[in-house]
């Protein structure tokens, strides 16, 4: 049984930092590209970042470039999202997803090339 579990969310002031973690079990973690997504109330889900199986290739949505860093530790089956210089507009539920294969597709941000999703962790940034 595959389980994907996010952690690390919380309440932080604008300008602060958080590190999200995502642990996956029941799948071959280092065969999977991994993605972070977020959804704010009343808004569509948005792709935040994607990382290929080895961690050598990463993608980011423009709004987080230079502030967020995705990484992975395949020995620990764990994905990370380091979020710095947080803004109120980063407030959302953040989800981790395991890809269908080891590479981020050209449409990685649409969320259609992932087969396992976590339940999410809430990030709230106060102004």
List keywords for this structure.
127 residues; mainly beta; seven-stranded mixed beta sheet; four-stranded antiparallel beta sheet
What does this structure look like?
This protein is an all-beta fold. The chain has no helices and eleven strands. The protein has strands spanning 3-7, 10-13, 18-25, 34-39, 46-51, 58-60, 68-73, 78-83, 92-99, 114-117, 121-126. Strands 2, 4, 5, 6, 9, 10 and 11 form a seven-stranded mixed sheet that branches. A four-stranded antiparallel sheet has the order 1-3-8-7, with no helix packed on it. Strand 4 and strand 5 form a beta hairpin. The mean pLDDT is 97.
Compact overview of the structure:
This protein is mainly β and 127 residues long.
Distance between the termini: 40 Å
Largest sheet: 7 strands, mixed
The coarse silhouette is globular
Low-confidence stretches: none
Oligomeric organization of the protein chains: single chain
Mean pLDDT: 97
Order of helices and strands: EEEEEEEEEEE
What share of the residues does DSSP label as strand, in percent?
Answer: over 45%
Topology overview:
Elements: E1 3-7, E2 10-13, E3 18-25, E4 34-39, E5 46-51, E6 58-60, E7 68-73, E8 78-83, E9 92-99, E10 114-117, E11 121-126
Parallel strand pairs: 2-11
Antiparallel strand pairs: 1-3, 3-8, 4-5, 4-9, 5-6, 7-8, 9-10, 9-11
């Amino acid at each position: 049984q595959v389980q994907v579990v996010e952690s690390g969310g919380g309440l932080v002031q604008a300008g602060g930092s958080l590190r999200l973690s995502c642990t996956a079990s029941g799948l071959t973690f280092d065969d999977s590209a991994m993605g972070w997504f977020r959804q704010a109330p009343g808004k569509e889900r948005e792709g935040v970042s994607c990382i290929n199986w080895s961690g050598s290739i990463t993608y980011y949505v423009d709004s987080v470039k230079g502030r967020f860093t995705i990484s992975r530790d395949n020995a620990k089956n764990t994905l990370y999202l380091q979020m710095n210089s947080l803004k109120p507009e980063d407030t959302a539920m953040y989800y981790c997803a395991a890809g269908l294969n080891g590479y981020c597709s050209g449409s990685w941000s649409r969320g259609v090339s992932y087969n396992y999703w976590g339940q999410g962790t809430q990030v709230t940034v106060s102004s």
